[in-house]
Amino acid sequence: MRAAVLHEIGQDKLEVFDDVEATGFGPGRVRIRVRATGLCHSDLSAMAGVLPQPAPFIPGHEGAGEIMEVGEGVTNVKAGDRVVVCWLPACGACPACKRGQTELCLAGFMNAGTPNFKRPGGDVFGFAGTGTFTEEVVVDAGCAVPIPDDVPFDIAALIGCGVTTGLGAALNTADVEAGSSVAVIGCGGVGVSAIQGARLRGAAEIVAVDPVLSRREAALRFGATRAVSPDELPDAKQSVTAGEGFDYVFEVVGRSATARTAYENTRRGGTLVVVGAGAMDDFLQLNMFELFFDEKRILPSMYGGGDVLRSYERTIALWRAGRIDLEGLITHRVPLGDINEALDQMRTGVSLRTCIEI
Length: 358
What we know:
Blueprint: E1 3-5, E2 15-17, E3 21-22, E4 29-38, H1 41-48, E5 57-58, E6 62-70, E7 82-85, H2 95-98, H3 107-111, E8 117-119, E9 122-126, E10 136-140, E11 144-146, H4 153-159, H5 162-174, E12 181-185, H6 189-200, E13 205-209, H7 213-221, E14 226-228, H8 233-241, E15 246-251, H9 256-264, E16 266-274, H10 288-294, E17 297-300, H11 308-320, E18 330-335, H12 339-348, E19 353-357
Parallel strand pairs: 5-9, 12-13, 12-15, 13-14, 15-16, 16-17, 18-19
Antiparallel strand pairs: 1-2, 3-8, 4-6, 4-10, 4-19, 6-7, 7-11, 8-9
Helix pairs in contact: 5-6, 5-11
């Protein structure tokens, strides 16, 4: 089967092979025919070594498709079911799951260190234990979440990561208050989803911050009340909040520099939500006096900060009702053979989400 493979961490191109095999099928596992997958910035971060991931590996973790076969003991899905790939499934038994914090379950991460593909030259890993830039993938049954027949595969793929992460950051983690002021730093697919979440909650002012003009223009279509470049953020802060700072600031880039900017633009007593996935050696510096004196809440948001399955259901319900726009997030479409074109679209910022059709 075909799959896009990164040979070594640090390379910026993927190579598409037709000699890849999905491995590991057996009890408790399912084989999925991938139909659509989105390119998330986390895939680029893993390729660059920002996020830890053994190589060689197949990127992709935002996918949807059909169940081809199920292993012994699998009861949640059957052959022919349409599913979204969940890269962070909950085991239901660990302390985090028992507390109701299923997004903190580490069971899914345990799969990331086990190869689930192979080529004639040896084993190949799947990013985050999945690897959806391929025609087929074998994963634990908990990673395959059934979806209704009326949800297209491309829409379902987005729900698998970016939309759930961004919406959840606003609805679950921040619990944005109606009438509040919001700034979102980084307006790709996840940032725009956070903007939609803030709009749903009734935020009065939503300022989108991004260096790319096309993304700023898109943010206005999705609910931002104004859109500015990073250099224009101080003026927006003055205009919208009289210089006090925003009630909520979402950092959706994953860098300490933008997190520091987000902190400085959050009002005293306000909330900074860290959504972007950054590097382990990139440290955010705060002095102890400001941490005490400003009483700003710093809330990391992992995968939307809530129960993933409930978040999927909520997103589908909001999409069906026309309360959120998911089709508009897909700005580009490419076949798997043109995967490097999709990478360029992400790196230059011209895309919100590129759908890779498989």
